[in-house]
């Protein structure tokens, strides 16, 4: 990413929360959205991080997102519940649901919450990591709008439905896999197009459903493993649409193309499974860490590219960005300047770059994980 | 598959069960193994069906599998339990665990069982489908021995760890995805080699970890979606090894190469989630069926290859084989003849081919799903 500025996580957090509050978002909701966006940017998942703030502010203005939701939670059995998010920010809905899943798991061993009437919740890892920090296995799923070509079909039907799984380790942050079920994202394809490059084979198709390596012709993504990724995406849809009563695939209003007045009606599914119902926490965490270390020390195909496990690149990035700040691309930087002007918030200038060495900031940021 | 005979599911069921009983397997255990193998062969998943009977009989003789296990089940919370299979057939262990997951779900909304000291359990769909027949979502996982190359690594570490998910539908058998996390299986690669064909790109690597399309050089499988399939495989290992205390990856005794006296110590993880804790069963099943029908009627890329959903090929095969019988390749047929002689069971000859039109047989077989 071409960057014009780096801003410390703490400074950015104040800015994002201030903008949301000025836009009328309730304090608790603004807190969850801010935490989710900053954590995600620190972990290097820029597509789902703070760069979405301008989009969310538009969604608030249009009425798509309810800034002051009236949640309704119903416990439906000893280990399950349903959560009506009242069209809140998905970040708030997801974290409220994760907390209830954790509560149920504390009482009954496991907790499983289906969330309905929700909106975009950013990175699924935010919720699964929260669960893992309670010494539980966290799983989190959401449906999304149609982007991925059905196997043997001509056009997109299902979304890029992500699967996220996190589990606690010894002496390091949780193991965390947070993956879309397509090979590449549209963001990445767009980026290759901007650099005049071809995309790898098997990544996307044109309007006729035929594979193309020209990034400008791609209108549908391809799932990982053909029918396998397509099947995984259906699983996510069953959990997030069939169990929640929310629309599926092509019936889900599109994130960017649908009018900003239209509610997205997304569904999420969040599970917490208590480790100590199966093994002592200590033994589980110790063995998981050994397992990860054993993989990391496997002989590498290319001696300059070590074997990693899911979450390793994000952990490395979070360490680096906690110290160096979160990078901004030119367009994002301009969009944030505009927000600062519009909402009358102190502007985050390049001059603040040097502040990221501030030790107190760094300590606070690193505690996010 | 080159076939020399077709044998009706009912006849084959009697034969398989008789062989297991003669080999000293307890009646209830032999029943589960038989049901699992026959259902799997009917569904067309031949790699995990009746053709494994000779292998299992060897494992019994060697002492790897305990024919008369002393199970120990412990309920560890309102929704969880651990099941010590005492080195039983995985089929019996898996089905006993699935039944306990269903019981817990009836009481508490969901049930989750970690199985330890188990052995090869055949197709994961056998257990997930059983759960789905109780109007619950069934999920089932098992670890296996090292076959799949780690992402960026040189050699296999994790197994071809399968993910299975089943959910009930209206007016047809459950939706069922049962997939290994590699692109192709060794069976399929071997088959291509026997026919003098190259394998598709991105399927396997040689002893140096370098991709090859020569089926005879392939010593490791590649995961679907690169780091994504590798991550999914780790999830399965966390559920089946870290939660159960069983060995992982390269520490798991190999199915065919390890001495038949060696216990495999596999772990499984089986979940049941009651549909009616989220939606009415009727609404869920109706919507899932509409969703599947909508996908099936999507415009196809090739008008001769319709869009399907996970489980469609298996349903079609089961209908066909319930009527026409289960096909035998020459080597399998010879192996079964040997078993008939060794255990003194009435021989299943080609002459029985014509019996498959028997209406009563067909009705019984179709009830398996």
Strand numbers in spatial order across the main sheet of chain A: 2-3-4-12-5-8-9
Oligomer description:
homodimer
Helix content of chain A: 25-40%
> Please, how many helices of chain A?
11
CATH superfamily of the largest domain in chain A: Malate/L-lactate/L-sulpholactate dehydrogenase, NADPH binding domain
Principal-axis shape of chain A: globular
CATH architecture label name of the largest domain in chain A:
2-Layer Sandwich
Summarize the largest interface: chains and residue counts.
A-B, 75 and 75 residues
Task: Explain what you see.
The structure is a homodimer of 369-residue chains. In chain A, 39% of the residues lie in helices and 17% in strands. Chain A is α+β, with helices and mostly antiparallel strands. The first copy, chain A, has 2 domains: 5-62 and 315-366, Malate/L-lactate/L-sulpholactate dehydrogenase, four-helix barrel (Hypothetical Oxidoreductase Yiak, Chain: A, domain 1, Orthogonal Bundle); 72-182 and 223-282, Malate/L-lactate/L-sulpholactate dehydrogenase, NADPH binding domain (Ribosomal Protein S8, Chain: A, domain 1), CATH 3.30.1370. In chain A, the strands form 4 sheets. The first copy, chain A, has a 7-stranded mixed β-sheet with strand order 2-3-4-12-5-8-9, with helices on both faces. In chain A, strands 1-13 form a two-stranded antiparallel sheet. A two-stranded antiparallel sheet of chain A has the order 6-7. In chain A, a hairpin with a 2-residue loop joins strand 2 and strand 3 (80-84). The two termini of chain A are 24 Å apart. The interface between A and B is large, with 75 and 75 residues.
């Amino acid at each position: 990413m071409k960057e014009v500025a780096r801003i410390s996580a703490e400074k950015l957090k104040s800015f994002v929360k201030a903008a949301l509050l000025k836009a009328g978002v309730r304090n608790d909701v603004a807190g969850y959205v801010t935490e989710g966006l900053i954590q995600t940017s620190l972990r290097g998942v820029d597509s789902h991080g703070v760069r979405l703030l301008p989009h969310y502010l538009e969604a608030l203005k249009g009425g798509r997102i309810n800034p002051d939701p009236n949640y309704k939670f119903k416990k439906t059995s000893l280990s399950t519940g349903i959560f009506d998010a009242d069209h809140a920010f998905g970040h708030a809905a997801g974290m409220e649901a994760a907390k209830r899943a954790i509560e149920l798991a504390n009482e009954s061993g496991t907790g499983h919450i289906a969330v309905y009437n929700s909106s975009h919740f950013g990175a699924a890892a935010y919720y699964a990591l929260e669960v893992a920090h309670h010494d539980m296995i966290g799983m989190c799923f959401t449906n999304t709008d149609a982007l991925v070509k059905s196997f043997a079909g001509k056009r997109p039907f299902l979304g890029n439905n992500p699967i996220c799984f996190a589990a606690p380790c010894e002496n390091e942050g949780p193991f965390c896999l947070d993956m879309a079920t397509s090979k590449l994202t549209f963001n990445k394809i767009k980026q290759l197009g901007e650099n005049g490059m071809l995309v790898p084979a098997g990544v996307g198709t044109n309007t006729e459903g035929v594979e193309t390596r020209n990034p400008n012709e791609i209108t549908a993504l391809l799932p990982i493993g053909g029918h396998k990724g397509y099947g995984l995406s259906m699983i996510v849809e069953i959990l997030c649409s069939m169990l929640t009563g929310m629309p599926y695939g092509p019936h889900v209003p599109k994130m960017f193309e649908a009018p900003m007045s239209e509610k997205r009606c997304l569904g999420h599914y969040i599970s917490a499974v208590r480790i100590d119902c199966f093994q002592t926490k200590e033994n589980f965490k110790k063995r998981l860490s050994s397992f990860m270390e054993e993989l990391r020390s496997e002989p590498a195909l290319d001696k300059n590219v070590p074997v990693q496990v899911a979450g390793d690149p994000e952990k490395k990035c979070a360490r680096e960005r906690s110290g160096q700040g979160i990078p901004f691309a030119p367009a994002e930087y301009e969009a944030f300047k505009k927000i600062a002007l519009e909402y009358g918030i102190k502007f985050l200038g390049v001059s603040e770059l040097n502040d990221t060495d501030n030790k107190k900031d760094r300590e606070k940021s690193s505690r996010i994980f």
